[in-house]
Amino acid sequence: MNARRHFVLRLSALTACLAAAVAATAPAYAQSSAGWPTKQPIRLVAVFPPGGSVDQVARILSVPLAQALGANIIVENKGGASGSIGAHFVASAPADGYTFAVVFDTHGVNPALIPNLPFDSKKDLTPLVLVGTSPMVLATNVGSEYKTFADVVAAAKSKKYVSFGSIGSGSLGHVAMTLLAKNGGFEWTHVPYRGGGPLMTDAVAGHVPLSIGSVFVTKPHIDSGRLRPLAVTTSKRSPDLPNVPTLAESGYPGFEAPAWWAVLAPAKTPPEIVKQMNDALNKVLKQPDIAKKLDAQGIDVVGGTPEAARVFIEKQMDIWAKVVKDNGIKAD
Q1: What φ, ψ does residue 49 adopt, rounded to 5°?
Q2: Residue 126, Cα to own-chain centre: how many angstroms?
Q3: For residue 211, is it within any domain?
Q4: Domain enclosing residue 75, as ranges
Q5: What is the full DSSP assignment across 165-219?
């Protein structure tokens, strides 16, 4: 009888242990079945400081993206080195679907411009989606002698001193205008500024004859009548500036240098997470209110597949690497 009772007690104990083991594994099983994301929060790293277009894009996307994914999303600003510090942070993060980057067009220039980057921009980051593109605008003070881009070229070819300002040495505006001058057979002098704010201050005051900047920083001063737009750098006219010709229309067929924004992930992020994140981002970009907010930043929404984003970004890297090398362009 005692032996039977001992057996029953041992059986009860074994049953309890098995039940405990099942209970312990149940949450893990539920987590893997539920799929990503199951832990909080997701970090969306804006690779420039607060206040600029990269920060604005990240914050515009974060709320509807959180709703689409059923997750909390926190925007973190990690600026510095033209976006390379934030990009490196994300490239080095665990590829678990909880850290992503919002990058700017400088991501396409930095590999050629910054020696010894601590990460490989093509191999260590996976594009998720191309959020959108925007023209850059070549503009002049409203009181300037330049009424058209042809006037600028004529002045430069007559050996008159012509200068233009950009948001910094090695910026997309700098390298794009260097390529334009090379293609056009003229010379002009680059005046680097530390950001769009200082550039626009001097452009409006007429301290720099020409400025090259995004629609985001330039259009308010065009609307106020203080700057005259001469041309945009995309192959098609900007919906925000429909009366401003493209550089292609101005005698430089094929010339295109768009500003752009994209969302990236660490390179080894699982394909199913890449797909789910891409699907959610495209869903968000198709929302009329989000498109309207991005349009207010001068951004034309693109969206699409991760592969399409990769092709676009790597093409930009290849184009500007050659320009930087051929012209000996240096960063600040």
Answers
A1: -65, 170
A2: 13
A3: yes
A4: 42-133+258-327
A5: EESSTTSHHHHHHHHHHHHHT---EEEE-SSHHHHHHHHHHTSSSEEEEEHHHHH
- Burial (0-12, 13-18, 19+ Cβ within 10 Å), 326: exposed
Whether residue 108 contacts residue 320, with contact meaning beta carbons closer than 8 Å, is answered with yes
d(CA 300, CA 295): 6
Same domain assignment for residues 225 and 289: no
Residue 63 sits in the same domain as residue 113: yes
Q: Which residue has the tokens 């020696």?
A: 115
Task: Please name the helix (run of DSSP H) or strand (run of DSSP E) that holds residue 246, with its range, or none.
Answer: none
Q: Is 250 helix (H, G, I), strand (E, B) or coil?
A: coil
CA torsion through residues 168, 320, 152, 159, sign: positive
Site of tokens 């993060």: 93
Q: Which tokens belong to 317?
A: 């890297």
Largest CA distance in the chain: 115
What is the CA 265 to chain-centroid distance, rounded? 12
Order of all β-strands in the sheet with 136-141: 189-192, 163-166, 210-214, 136-141, 227-232
Per DSSP, 106 falls in state G
State residue 332's pLDDT score. 63
Nearest residue to 212 (alpha-carbon basis) of 224, 236, 196, 235: 196
Number of C-beta neighbours around residue 310 at 10 A:
18
Helix (H) or strand (E) holding 155: helix 149-157
Amino acid at 105: D
Give me the amino acid identity at 169.
S
Q: What is the pLDDT of residue 68?
A: 96
145 and 219 share one domain:
yes
> Over the chain (332 residues), what is each successive 10-residue block's mean pLDDT?
42 38 32 62 94 92 96 95 94 97 96 93 98 97 96 95 92 95 95 89 96 92 97 94 96 94 97 97 98 93 98 97 92 70
